[in-house]
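Below is a filled-in request sheet from our internal design queue. Each sheet records the structural input a requester submitted and the sequence that came back. We keep these sheets so that new team members can see what a complete request looks like end to end.

REQUESTER: design group, bay 2
PRIORITY: normal
MODE: inverse folding
CHAIN LENGTH: 248
BACKBONE (tokenized):
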């Protein structure tokens, strides 16, 4: 059985704008297996979001191709759900309405209810299902955005710096929750981050990107067993190594 879910084959992306040409991505190739947790790590402007948007089908590569479960990606699809840095909830809809929005009309009412119940439960928002976005904290709003993504019952979750706008304590808690969610659901997760510790706490493999043009400089396997500790010697050792690779 082919366990490769995402296959990125020599993609490039060049943007042309009024101020000139930007080579956002050049010759990027990697694969991601089913149920794998991969992080894409790199400094601002190295093309992380562009790469994730291409996998999401929101952007087309200038050359190369991306396959999902063996098929070329031609646009967005429910099998690839995206969570952005800001939660992007509809302010006039409740948490449960926001969560069910993408799938209402596509599922039977009883199925819809079951899916929304399960996803809200997974992100710990069941008590707040009737709340409106302005009644939520930043962390809760981001959980609601994750619930909306999960409601699609995607095979892969694509996360673009989902916790970077949160305070350190909330970020740590949501990282732990994401870890739980991954273990319970065995979804394939691709996480974009510029936080080395976040990538090291969560992922099995880290793609280190470098800018101008955006390329994958190195792929680092993280052989540390879960749950991981930030103060373990192997964690600290890998963190130093990755930091060195990013700034060199
Ligand atoms: N729509 C666009 N039009 C023109 N240039 C773009 C566009 N989107 C991205 N770029 C350029 O492509 C490069 C990569 O941008 P991208 O947003 O992918 O980086 P990033 O790694 O996600 O950065 P950050 O960590 O700040 O979010 C940047 O130089 C950016 O200016
Ligand atoms: Mg970005």
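RETURNED SEQUENCE:
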């Amino acid at each position: 059985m082919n366990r490769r879910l995402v296959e990125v084959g020599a993609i490039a992306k060049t943007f042309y704008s009024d101020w000139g040409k930007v080579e956002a991505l050049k010759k990027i190739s990697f694969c991601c297996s089913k149920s794998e947790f991969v992080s894409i790590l790199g400094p601002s402007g190295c093309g992380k979001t562009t790469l994730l948007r291409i996998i999401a089908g929101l952007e087309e590569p200038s050359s190369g191709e991306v396959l999902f479960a063996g098929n070329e990606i031609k646009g967005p699809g429910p099998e690839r759900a995206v969570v952005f840095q800001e939660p992007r909830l509809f302010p006039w809809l409740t948490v449960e309405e926001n969560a069910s929005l993408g799938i209402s009309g596509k599922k039977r009412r009883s199925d819809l209810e079951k899916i929304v119940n399960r996803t809200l439960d997974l992100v710990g928002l069941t008590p707040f299902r009737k709340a409106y976005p302005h009644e939520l904290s930043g962390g809760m709003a981001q959980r609601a955005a994750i619930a909306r993504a999960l409601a699609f019952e995607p095979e892969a979750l694509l996360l673009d710096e989902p916790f970077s706008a949160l305070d350190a304590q909330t970020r740590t808690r949501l990282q732990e929750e994401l870890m739980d969610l991954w273990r319970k659901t065995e979804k394939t997760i691709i996480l974009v981050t510029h936080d080395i510790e976040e990538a090291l706490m969560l992922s099995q493999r880290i793609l280190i990107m470098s800018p101008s043009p955006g390329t994958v400089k190195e792929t680092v396997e993280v052989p540390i067993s879960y749950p991981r500790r930030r103060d373990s010697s192997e964690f600290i050792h890998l963190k130093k190594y990755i930091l060195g690779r990013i700034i060199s």
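SHEET NOTES:
- Residues 15, 17, 22, 24, 42, 44-50, 194, 214 surround adenosine-5'-triphosphate (ligand 1) (CB under 6 Å).
- The mean pLDDT is 94.
FILED BY: M.R.
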